[in-house]
Amino acid sequence: MTTDRQLPATRTSEIDSICYRVPLIPVLTIHNLEDAVPLCRALYEGGLTTLEVTLRTDCALQALHRLRDALPEASIGAGTVITLGQYRQAEEAGVDFVVTPGTTEQLYEYGTRSPVPLLPGIATMTEALTGWQYGYRRFKFFPAEACGGVAALKAFAGPLRDAQFCPTGGITPDNAANYLKLRNVMCVGGSWVMPAELIERADWGAIRALAEETMRDIGG
Ligand SMILES: O=C(O)C(=O)C[C@H](O)[C@H](O)COP(=O)(O)O
């Protein structure tokens, strides 16, 4: 393992300015390219100004290109980045940040020299320590509920005193506040603000209202 490369110190504050901007980062999987802009605009106008689009669908990269033009003020991230090739494609799409569900050494290393900041996914203390050696102090905790949830994050806070997390996976309107109370949580990630039935009906007004309600409930 090489740890010669270190994350520039400014990277941590770049991630902070993206993740402390909102209590919730909506994690979107776009199935229909035409939905991308109206869906994200509805979330953005509802107050959720940082958005993560997963690279799980064929149209995801195209969606990111369109979103970059349509919502220049939003912080737009590419999620589910699991290869270096996808990281580079996300850079080309003009994203503000890259999120991984779990992180290889190769991705950690590339994140130290990419122009686009990385929020690396971890599920265990050991995985976080691998990133720690490269200088990473901000992580996505995924899948949060399945991997110990609030109790695990409380335990991480002891040894990883400078670390901050974005727990994602199984976060709901009912448990989000418990995470946001923790001193080592920046924001949470989740998909609940865009129910599939509202997307199918193209009911962007209802999605905007749900985003506004979320901001009222957990925006503190
Ligand atoms: O694919 C990735 O990279 C992911 O990060 C997975 C998403 O974060 C979760 O699918 C969101 O979890 P839910 O809110 O429980 O739906």
TrEMBL record:
Keywords: Carbohydrate metabolism, Lyase, Schiff base. It comes from the Bacteria. Its EC number is 4.1.2.14. InterPro entries: Aldlse_KDPG_KHG, Aldolase_TIM, KDPG/KHG_AS_1, KDPG/KHG_AS_2. One of its GO terms (molecular function) is 2-dehydro-3-deoxy-phosphogluconate aldolase activity. It catalyses: 2-dehydro-3-deoxy-6-phospho-D-gluconate = D-glyceraldehyde 3-phosphate + pyruvate. Pathway: Carbohydrate acid metabolism; 2-dehydro-3-deoxy-D-gluconate degradation; D-glyceraldehyde 3-phosphate and pyruvate from 2-dehydro-3-deoxy-D-gluconate: step 2/2. Pfam families: Aldolase. The keyword Translocase does not apply. It is an enzyme of class 4 (lyase). The keyword Iron does not apply. Homotrimer. This is 2-dehydro-3-deoxy-phosphogluconate aldolase. It comes from Kushneria phosphatilytica.
